[in-house]
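Hello Y.,

Per our agreement to keep a running log of every chain we model this quarter, I'm adding this entry. I've kept the format consistent with earlier entries: sequence first, then predicted structure.
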Amino acid sequence: MKLKKFIISSLLAFASLTFTSNADAASVQTHRVQKGDTLWKIGMNYGVSVSQLKRENHRTSDLIYIGEILKIPQTISAYEKDLLARLVEAEAKGEAYAGKVAVATVVLNRVDSDLFPNSISEVIYQKDQFTPVKNGTIYNPASEASKKAVNEALVFRGQGRGSLYFYNPQKTSNSWLRSKQVTVVIGNHVFAK
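Predicted structure for the entry above:
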């Protein structure tokens, strides 16, 4: 009886692994390179970083060929992309497009940093981090510019100056935040690490 249970368990485990592998293989997204495509444009289309595209397709250069099929790596979920766009909208409404990209980049840098949680939603909802979470504006819809800024930040991921913080010096007197190394100033925001 034990041998029969072992055989059945083994067969079920094997079938589960086979099905999972086939499902994963079937879910791999690809892109056929068209005239005018660049890794940057492809990344913007799918919300994937250029470095991820290169790594997934075993590239060391940006060179791609018309007709070539590239594997598109997994990116963030639609929920997290929308959440990030709503944060960008609330934090950088009225700011230049570059400021919107920089706000999204700060969140992605935090996700990639050992100092912060490991997901976009955990970073955004981390206690006392973002004013829009406190005042509820995080729940307002994002503009097309904010959605585009998120995609651009995703494409740019890992290539910036490592900003982990941003603030409006006219709205905060936090000396700890002001003591951080400034990486760039865009519009009304100071970005720092």
